[in-house]
Design a protein that fits this description.
The complex is a heterodimer of chains A (125) and B (383).
Chain A lengths: L6 H10 L4 E5 L21 E5 L3 E10 L9 E8 L4 E4 L14 E9 L2 E8 L3
Chain B lengths: L8 E12 L6 H16 L8 E4 L7 H9 L5 E3 L7 H14 L6 E7 L1 H4 L22 H15 L3 H15 L13 H6 L2 E3 L2 E2 L8 E10 L11 E10 L15 H12 L8 E4 L4 H10 L8 H5 L17 H4 L7 H13 L12 E8 L4 E8 L5
Parallel strand pairs in B: 2-3, 2-4, 9-10
Antiparallel strand pairs in B: 1-7, 1-8, 4-7, 5-6, 8-11, 10-11
Classes of the chains: A mainly beta (125), B alpha/beta (383).
Protein name (chain A): DUF35 domain-containing protein
Pfam family, one (chain A): OB_ChsH2_C
Organism (chain A): Tritonibacter horizontis
């Protein structure tokens, strides 16, 4: 397999290896998400990759209501990571309706739509 | 838009077609019927149109498809796609093009047959790559998460959200053009099927067919047409994100900036506005835009709309046609905010006609609270 070169490839390749890597700008030091070829904060182009702490909080959340025969209700949320970036995801291991704003969560690499994806579970207290 | 463009263009025709269910018609058929209705209203013909401002949900070159369908060869064309706000945004580009002499008759037009074609939102837009794996229901999950955050930060209640839908229905009940005119109570909204917490199906806009069109000319010839001209006094846009996960503050939209600049260009303030037409794709939208446009303070939108305060006979007339929640919502609603604002000023609103309206506001929203465009329209008296 050739080396990943583009930002999306680097992120997805890491996920395939079970790692969550986040892009950070070498110029201003701020993280960003989604991955891209420039820093959306200072517009610098020197981007390096760092393992995510995995610690986050639910910034906002909803339950997508769906009939049981079609798979039932599920969670969609936006999580803010300790690094200051937000991503859409879902929290697993808890009923969708019990997920609340500000809940502490921990990231893991799971599967969504047959692809590796960043998912979350309630943080251990 | 700056004060330099204040009152330089005017709406001299409005039209619509296919409201509700346009059986047997394509989206482009509905678009063309809307164009003919607006041109008829203005006493003009399709052959007079030399500026076309159009986007549709069907494909990626809709403006070209529309020009071809209409049998016109426009010398100025704008198909900028910012979602449902596009048509309010075209007020700015049409004014610029007219004022610069790049066209003489501007036609803004839209059509959709989403209800009879599929029964749900039709879109050529692809789900964003970093959101798609989590299967958000587009677009409701985004608005539901904005509502959840507003409730969390400001104590906004589901009852207050419901009251937005109840007020919209109360206006719609007087509008023979509106699709949903049956009674609707707060309890009906709260007890309706939950589709994306905290929003029930009654917190969501309709899924209808329909099209709308607007004809604009330079102000210097605006009085030569059958209907009283409605002037564009100010219009302004601000875009903050595309994907909901990228929205910086889920409780503050870029309407704060678009509104402030539109008001500055028009030289008026929120308290001057007599009719407020907002893009109410979901009940939370009305609350957010009333706050961000300056009709009430941030966080107070829930109390502002409570108990019929934006319904007929309330303190502020909002969405006087019934809005996207009860009148019509064919995928992109923005053009109907402008049409209703213009008709309130002209005095030929289809439902409740407010008395002596000189100033009205139309506000378009696109994407998932992504693109915000505000326009202030005025009568001859406001020039």
């Amino acid at each position: 397999m050739p080396d990943a070169t583009g930002p999306d490839q680097i992120f997805q390749r890491a996920l395939t290896n079970g790692e969550i890597m986040l892009p950070r700008c070498d110029d201003c030091g701020a993280y960003h998400f989604f991955p891209r070829v420039l820093c959306p904060h200072c517009h610098g182009t020197a981007i390096s990759w760092h393992p995510a702490s995995g610690k986050g909080r639910v910034h906002t959340t909803t339950v997508v209501r769906q009939k049981p025969e079609r798979g039932g209700d599920y969670n969609v949320c936006v999580v803010e990571l300790e690094e200051g970036v937000r991503m859409m995801s879902r929290v697993e291991g808890i009923a969708p309706g019990d997920i609340v704003i500000d809940m502490a969560v921990t990231a893991f690499v799971g599967g969504a739509e047959g692809q590796p994806a960043v998912l979350f579970k309630p943080a251990e207290v | 838009m700056t004060t330099k463009l204040r009152g330089k263009s005017a709406i001299v025709g409005t039209g619509h077609a296919g409201f509700g269910e346009a059986h047997g018609l394509t989206a482009y058929d509905v678009m063309a019927q809307s164009a003919l209705a607006a041109l008829g209203d203005a006493g003009l013909k399709l052959s007079d149109v030399d500026g076309l401002f159009c986007t549709m949900m069907e494909d990626s070159m809709p403006a070209l498809m529309a020009a071809e369908y209409l049998g016109i060869q426009p010398r100025f064309i704008d198909g900028t796609m910012t979602g449902g706000s596009s048509f309010v945004n075209y007020l700015t580009s049409a004014t610029m093009a007219l004022e610069a002499g790049l066209c003489d008759v501007a036609l803004i037009v839209y059509g959709s047959n989403q209800r009879t074609a599929s029964g749900r939102l039709v879109t050529a837009s692809r789900p964003p790559a970093y959101e798609a794996p989590y299967n958000p229901r587009y677009p409701i999950s985004a608005y539901a998460m904005a509502a959840a955050r507003h409730m969390h930060e400001f104590g906004t209640t589901r009852e207050q959200l419901a009251d937005v839908a109840v007020a919209a229905r109360a206006w719609a009940q007087h509008n023979p053009e509106a699709f949903e005119r049956g009674p609707l109570s707060r309890a009906d909204v709260l007890g309706a099927r939950m589709v994306g917490d905290p929003l029930t199906v009654r917190d969501c806009c309709l899924v209808t067919d329909g099209g709308g069109a607007i004809v604009m000319v330079r102000a210097d010839r605006a009085r030569d047409f059958p209907k009283a001209p409605v002037y564009v006094l100010g219009s302004a846009a601000e875009s903050s994100h595309r994907q909901i996960s990228q929205m910086k503050d889920f409780t503050v939209t870029a309407a704060r900036e678009s509104g402030a600049r539109a008001f500055a260009a028009a030289g008026v303030s929120p308290s001057d506005i007599q009719a407020v037409e907002l893009y109410d794709a979901f009940t939370i939208n009305t609350i957010l835009f009333l706050e961000d446009l300056g009709f009430c303070a941030k966080g107070e939108g829930g109390a502002f709309v409570e108990g019929g305060r934006i319904a007929p006979g309330g303190v502020l007339p909002v969405n006087t046609n019934g809005g996207g929640l009860s009148c019509v919502h064919p995928g992109m609603y923005g053009i109907f905010t402008v049409i209703e604002a213009a008709r309130q000023i002209r005095g030929d609103a289809p439902g409740i006609q407010l008395r002596d309206v000189d100033l009205a506001l139309a506000h378009g929203n696109g994407g998932v609270l992504s693109s915000q465009v505000t326009a202030i329209l005025g009568s001859q008296n406001t020039l």
